[in-house]
Design goal:
With 101 residues, the protein is mostly helical. 77% of the residues lie in helices and 0% in strands. The chain contains 5 helices and no strands. Helix 2 runs antiparallel to helix 3 (46-58). It is elongated. It starts with a helix and ends with a helix.
Amino acid sequence: MKMKMTIAILMLSAVAAGYAGAAEKTAQQQKMTVCNQHAGEKGLKGDDRKAFMSNCLKKDAKAEGMTPQQMKMKTCNADASQKELKGDARKAFMSTCLKKS
């Protein structure tokens, strides 16, 4: 019986510690919350919201430390945005762009 009680106390302690850690947001989580609020205030939906969120979350991000694949993704994404591609056309363009060597 003592063993079950000890296990129960340990489990409750672990759960309480998990809730305490969940209350503190990381910098990225805080940035996501702020960007999400701004998108809501602007009434953005669909592709416009996705583009806004992507841009908002990338602000102040540096290219340093990016892998070649990440840099390629960023370039292809910028090209697709510049061409104002949406939906299936954007997906097809991104797929082709990312496959290029």
